[in-house]
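Long-time lurker. I teach an intro course on protein structure, and each term I like to show students one example going from raw sequence to a predicted 3D structure in token notation. This year I'd like something fresh instead of my usual example. Would anyone be willing to generate the tokens for the chain below so I can use it in lecture? Attribution to the forum is fine with me.
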Amino acid sequence: MTNPLTPEQEAKLVAAIQQAEIKTSGEIRVHLEDTCPTPEPLDRAAQVFAELNMHRTAQRNGVLFYLAWEARRFAVIGDSGINAAVPDDFWETTKETVLKHFRTNDYVTGLEKGVRMVGEQLQHFFPYDAATDRNELDDSISFGKPTPPRA
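-- Reply from a regular --
Happy to contribute to a lecture. Here you go:
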């Protein structure tokens, strides 16, 4: 896959992730690929979530933003810890906020706003603890078929 982001756009998204994670133990990733190999983007997001070992956070509070760029397929998925904590409509509200920007081809702003929304919820339910918190997942954007990190 060719990276559809400019270096500035990629840096902007990584900075949004890092900013969102400052006050939380939660972890956020963004994954981009050209096409979605499954009929439902949520199914593919779940596969990528597992391949990136996002379920291995101590509090099960990882969140993945998945975008099949050329196919225009999108999903956002959270682990069991955050799913149990956020309001029932949170994922749909987040998705709609992101898609509002995608409809005008403003993908970076859409992802940034979604990352900020998730960061606020993670901060509320999973506050940062200086004594125990560490960055459990890479903040960089992943592309194409993910290569799982070594255990």
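Some talking points for your students: The helical segments are 7-21, 41-51, 80-85, 90-102, 107-125. The mean pLDDT is 90.
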